[in-house]
Amino acid sequence: MSPDTPNEDPRSIVWFDIDNTLYSASAKISQAMAQRIHAYFVDLGLDEDEASELHHAYYTQYGLALRGLMRHHDIDPMDFDQKCDGTLPLDDLIKPDPRLRKLFQDLDRTKVRVWALTNAYKNHAQRVLKILNLEDQIEGLVYCDYQQIGFTCKPEPDYYHNAMKEANVSDPSKCYFIDDSQRNVTSAKELGWGHCVHFCEVGMEIMDGGKTKQLVRNTNDNDPESIPQITDLEELRTLWSEIFV
């Protein structure tokens, strides 16, 4: 080990996704964001149908519409962040939840560290955590660095590898992870992350790459290898009972 590398923390690490996980999809932030991204495409000179199709195509191919915009349209990612994420009226859409804060407080910090893992830029992530009154409960934040050329995002394996490197954890089996995206948790599990959970508010509608998607329950619940799916974060107290006080 390099003398500049800190000793690895022996505790496990809990990774929480932020958007549509720490708050309900009923807040409709994904819809508000989709409208802003659509408008951004239209401002590039595309008509409404072209903007919708390209938005979805870039999201599907690159994980984030922004990465397609950067690659094919040479846009300024910070301009995108300011006009899309930066204009979301988050204070009107989400509020602190004492029940959620108590969930975080009840995690046994002698056994785990708690980090956030998001595909948003740090400004948006920090805004959400502040509004939800969780800033002091999160020890670290891994985000998509829009200012970095070729930045990675979930569900790409390199994103998870980089997250582990940043948090100084070498054993993927010590990673607990919850995300509202089935793709994201599946990717993490395939990399050996030991305790993956899919948060899914069944019946809710979200925007997925600019397209409306209704959340549905897994059909393989009887498969012992399947990823557990929950509809309420309180269920983590049972699934991850070993890391709660």
Short overview:
The chain is an alpha/beta fold and 245 residues long. It has helices spanning 29-43, 48-62, 65-73, 77-83, 90-93, 98-105, 122-131, 157-167, 182-190, 236-239; strands at 12-16, 112-117, 140-142, 175-179, 195-199, 205-208, 211-214, 229-230.
Give a written overview of the molecule.
By secondary structure, the chain is α/β, with parallel strands linked by helices. The chain folds into 2 domains: about 10-25 and about 90-245, 3-Layer(aba) Sandwich (Rossmann fold); about 30-85, DNA polymerase, domain 1 (Orthogonal Bundle). It is built from 10 helices and 8 strands. It has a 6-stranded parallel beta sheet with strand order 3-2-1-4-5-8, covered by helices on one side. Strands 6-7 form a two-stranded antiparallel sheet. Strand 6 (about 205-210) and strand 7 form a beta hairpin. Helix 1 (about 30-45) packs across helix 2 and helix 2 packs across helix 3. It is globular and about 55 Å long. It starts with 11 loop residues before the first strand and ends in a 6-residue tail after the last helix. The mean pLDDT is about 90.
- How much beta, percentage-wise? 5-15%
The CATH C-level class name of the largest domain: Alpha Beta
Oligomeric state of this protein: single chain
Note the overall shape.
Answer: globular
Please list the strands of the largest sheet in the order they lie side by side: 3-2-1-4-5-8
Number of strand elements:
8
